């Protein structure tokens, strides 16, 4: 079996184009949120290293804890609906950063960050589960490469654009762009047909659940699909997933490498934050962004 090239996959698979576009837009918005959120936390906390550290914990820890649960969860429900629901919820949550104006309500930024990345774990779980169904075996290699390469490309592009937008237009605009990116992502996912995001077993199970909720006998329903065998409980499947990772050396190695990478990534973020917030601020003067002149009282030029 010959794998599709990037061009063949993108040109010939509209559903994958929509999924890739949704990820691209929402990931771009995420980096606007990261840069603006970190700047806002520094601004209202008077550049406290503790406040910045809590912000990083609020980003990384919820995603790490929620990802194993999300993987099992999205396998039992509509992946398309999970992606749309998490995008719409994140659009509202992203706007809550606009309420942070003083150290007393800094907790809003932490809570919003925790919620954004918890829901992000469910979105990623649904997206990763849906992608193989969208592209098939021949397109899986190219699709995986595109999904992950564009994601890491946006770490550079998105953070640069997020910093520029925060400096020129203010943090509020960056948060609004982030919220709009989630709405755009939800729209692109909505364009993907429900049937394209799930495999035959999941589709049969969902049809079976719908028929059981109807009052008339299932056998009399049009397009009736016979019920599939009952599956294990959510906790049983979650436990089996951990057992598989523990007993499969390749899977365990990948997990350990991700933990190490995330640990180093978190540490380097703290270094970058201190460089920007302390070293360069001392050399060039504190400039949280061009719209604010008083870090401690958060007074806008407007």
Question: Please, could you describe this protein's structure?
Answer:
Helix 4 crosses helix 5 (106-169) and helix 8 crosses helix 9. 76% of the residues lie in helices and 2% in strands. The chain has helices at 6-12, 14-44, 49-74, 79-95, 106-169, 171-190, 200-213, 234-247, 249-284, and strands at residues 292-294, 299-300. It is globular. It has one domain: Growth Hormone, Chain: A (Up-down Bundle), CATH 1.20.1250. It is built from 9 helices and 2 strands. Strands 1-2 form a two-stranded antiparallel sheet. The model is unreliable at 205-214, 224-228 and 288-302 (pLDDT under 50). It has 302 residues and is mainly alpha-helical. The longest helix is centred in the middle third of the chain and has 64 residues, at 106-169.
Order of helices and strands: HHHHHHHHHEE
CATH architecture: Up-down Bundle
Give the percentage of residues in beta strands.
under 5%
Question: What is the CATH homology-level superfamily?
Answer: MFS general substrate transporter like domains
Biggest pleated sheet: 2 strands, antiparallel
Distinct helical segment count:
9
Q: Give the mean pLDDT.
A: 77
Q: Shape, please?
A: globular
- Give the N-terminus to C-terminus distance in angstroms: 62 Å
**What would you call the structural class?**
mainly alpha
The overall strand count is 2
Taking pLDDT < 50 over at least 5 consecutive residues as the criterion, the unreliable ranges are: 205-214, 224-228, 288-302
Annotated CATH topology: Growth Hormone, Chain: A
